Amino acid sequence: MDIKPLKTEQIGIQTLEKRLMKSESKISLKIGLPKEVSNDERRISLTPGGVSILKANGHEVFMEQEAGEEANFSDQEFADAGAEVAYSIEEVYKKANLIAKVAPPTQEELELLDNNHILLSALHLGNATEKFINTLINKCITAIGFEFIKGEDKEFPIVRMMHEITGSMAVQVGAHYLEKGEGGQGIMLGGISGIPPATVVILGAGITAEYAARTALGYGAQVFVMDNDLARLRHLENALDRRIITATANYQYLSSALEHADVVIGAAMQEGERAPCLVSEPMVANMKAGSVIVDTVIDQGGCIATSRATSHSMPTYTVHDVIHYCVPNIPSNVARTATYALNNVLVPYLLAIGDAGGIKECLWSNTALRNGTYVYKKHLTKKSLAELFDMPFREIEMLIASQI
């Protein structure tokens, strides 16, 4: 009997397709997929399978030439699925009324946005500027941020997907840079018989931390998880059968743990807020030479004082003899897997907009997209952003209810 390998990439989209194939939506969306141009971004928002589902429901998709190339999806695959391949970014923005992209628009892309465009993308709180927000407001853009999309179950589905990938990848990165050839101590993460394993300290006890801990345990490392939320620490201890060591993230425990750490993974964050800075520069200075810091929340401002954003092309730098890896979009390095993950979350939201008859009607009924909206009808609708930039805001529910 032949045992064939599972088509792991396709399982999610096959399940999605069975569930979502139906009659045409109330309105036809014109969805634009521009090629990502910023910060080594290699992902794309939709797969060819996702495009075929949208086409079956009466929507149009305009994809910039080679937009899926970095995630190993060809133009021909998208064309066969029903997308129209455009030969310039200007053509995509002109033909589409909804732009679905991964990274926030660059200044050049902001200029291509027209009044009443819908923008569905990440915001990257750590790099967001008042000028960026004001441009969206002045152009009357409806902007929905991946970081803010939260369902009635209180889960952040896109954030969770990317955090699962990020947590697993962070440990792989840490193990790689511990190697002597990369400037590290020259040690294995898991050790071998008679030689103790490396110590991994994880800051935070959320989804990224959980998947980082699972991966580190799989390598055989000794794992410490530190957070000030005792309920999260208890949950993680139980979920991982008490194979990790937990501690509150106070100065005493942090200082002691960092002195012995071989890899530190920064994963402390608050959804929709800037990351709390838990580690000071003196703490970093007391770490072992050749140890590694992977700050996975650098796009939210980072949780380590010596962290500054890097890129996939130049991913590391050294401070106090400690290697820092601070790439904001870690999942981009596994762009194909991450694209499937994004697609499986985004396609139902796009169908919901069409089924509702438009973005206004959908925001009234769809909790997740309503929570995700941060600019609507020339108003900032997120209190956290208003406080960050000292700008006025209005609740999205009030704007919709007042028929603005």
UniProtKB/TrEMBL annotation:
SUPFAM superfamilies (UniProt xref): Formate/glycerate dehydrogenase catalytic domain-like, NAD(P)-binding Rossmann-fold domains
Top EC class for this record: oxidoreductase
Ranges where the Alanine dehydrogenase/pyridine nucleotide transhydrogenase N-terminal domain occurs: 32-166
Known EC number: 1.4.1.1
Coiled coil: none
Protein name as annotated: alanine dehydrogenase
Record-annotated Alanine dehydrogenase/pyridine nucleotide transhydrogenase NAD(H)-binding domain positions: 178-326
Keyword Oxidoreductase attributed: yes
InterPro entries named in the record: Ala_DH, AlaDH/PNT_N, AlaDH/PNT_NAD(H)-bd, NAD(P)-bd_dom_sf
Organism: Fodinibius salicampi
Domain of life from the UniProt record: Bacteria
Keyword field: Oxidoreductase
Keyword tRNA processing applies: no
Family of the protein in this entry: Belongs to the AlaDH/PNT family.
